[in-house]
Amino acid sequence: MKFSIAVHEGPYTHEAADSAYNFVTAALEKGHEIFRVFFYHDGVNNGTRFTTPPQDDRNIVNRWSELADKHGIDLVVCVAAAQRRGIVDPDEAKRNSKDGDNIAPGFRISGLGQLIEACIQSDRHLTFGD
Amino acid sequence: MTDEMMEEGGTVKKLMYVCRTAPYGTIYALEALEVVLIGAAFEQDVCLVFTDDGVFEIMKGQKTDDIGMKNFSPTYRALEMYDVEKLYVEKEAMEQRGLGEDDFNVDVEVKSAAEIQALMEEMDIVLNY
Amino acid sequence: MTMLHTVNKSPYQKNSLDTCLRLAKEGSTILLIEDGVYAALKGSGMSSKVEEAMKKFTFCALGPDVEARGIQDKMIDGIKMVDYTGFVDLAADSTCVQSWL
Questions:
Q1: Residues near B66 by beta carbon (within 8 Å), at least 6 away in sequence
Q2: Nearest alpha carbon to residue B69 among B21, B22, B25, B19
Q3: Which residues from A are below 8 Å from C97, CB to CB?
Q4: How far apart (Å, rounded) are the C-alpha atoms in residues A75 and A109?
Q5: Which strands form B86-90's sheet, in the order they lie side by side?
Q6: What is the sign of the dihedral through the CA atoms of A98, A104, A107 and A113?
Q7: Do A9 and A19 contact (CB within 8 A), yes or no?
Q8: pLDDT tens for residues A21-35?
Q9: Mean pLDDT by 10-residue block, N- to C-terminus, for chain A (130 residues)?
Q10: How many CA atoms lie within 13 A of C89 on its CB side?
Q11: Is residue B111 pLDDT above 70, yes or no?
Q12: A41 neighbourhood in chain B, CB within 8 Å
């Protein structure tokens, strides 16, 4: 079965990113497909590679990147929400004259249409957030 | 929407947005509206349900000048132009907040919890904001 | 098949569970996750409401969230504990998932 997931909250403040990650890994273990994970609202903060949690804590951002690398999962950060909150990839940095980018490996920035498309293309959609 | 999807075509799903958050205090209501506007391009069978504090999103008379934020309440009136025409307010939530149909800035249909229950059960996708 | 409703808020903090109970159709499954699991506390201000609702809905709680909060021995009888695999199964076996936030 094809699942799509929306994550509405940033890492560490809210459990949403952890719940979403745990759900995704359990679904993959059961042989399901994750069509896309879409990051919206403060959830876009899951996609910054500048995150530096304490050594003894989970690295939520790296965990997503590894999942994308290992399972080819499409991690999409909403462009409008990302622009508001300062998450940029090289293209966005250039377009908006920023002096750098901070997108984490395995993430891409795209439009809200990607959320709706994921909902339509998947058998089930779940949201994790506040 | 990609050309590929257009060619596949035919996938019309029933999609309900459940709007439960008041405007301005948090960004959820505004960003939910952005989803609805973008989602309209996908020509799905869409409806919006305003319940809980979401009923405050469509209050008449919102003036945001003195908080320095954009008043996005007129945008709900524009949804019709995007063929998003099914706007429902849950009666119980509305009455709990001392509101009536005349308090809203857009044409809505007031539905009981039981009616919304039945409607929700028909959905393929429910998005909660 | 019926809908799966997830509730992730403590009923003492937000009305998500109340609204879910009002708008979910009888026979649906309600899965308590994150702070939503506090609704499952035995002998609490919520327990009579939840016990009443259990006549209409199947109640589950996400085990990892229950244990993280130390309430595993204080759960209302009859609430089914599931792990993340169980959560995935519940979602797959439903018609649609409504995530009450």
A1: none
A2: B25
A3: 124-126
A4: 9
A5: B109-111, B86-90, B45-50, B14-19, B125-128
A6: negative
A7: no
A8: 999 999 999 999 999
A9: 98 98 98 98 98 97 98 98 97 96 98 97 97
A10: 8
A11: yes
A12: 27-28, 31
pTM over 0.85: yes
Phi-psi region of A73 (alpha: psi -120 to 50; beta: other; left: phi over 0): beta
pLDDT at B2: 47
B31/A81 CB distance under 8 A: yes
Pull the structure tokens for residue C81: 């504990």
The arithmetic mean of pLDDT across residues B45-52, rounded, is 98
List all residues 6 or more positions away from B95 whose beta carbon is below 8 Å from its beta carbon. Answer: none
What are B17's two structure tokens?
Answer: 């947005």
Any chain B CB within 8 A of the CB of C68?
Answer: no
Calpha distance C8→C98 (Å, rounded) = 11
Asked if the C-beta of A95 comes within 8 angstroms of chain C's C-beta atoms, the answer is no
Query: Is the pLDDT confidence value at C7 over 90?
Result: yes
Q: Compute CA distances B62 → B21, B36, C62, whole Å.
A: 15, 20, 41
Sheet with C97-100: strands ordered across: C80-82, C58-62, C29-32, C4-7, C97-100
Residue C6: CB partners within 8 Å, gap ≥ 6?
Answer: A126, C30, C31, C32, C33, C36, C97, C98, C99, C100
Q: CB–CB of B55/B116 below 8 Å?
A: no
In single-letter form, the type of residue at position A78 comes to: C
Contact state of A30 with C87 under an 8 Å Cβ cutoff: no
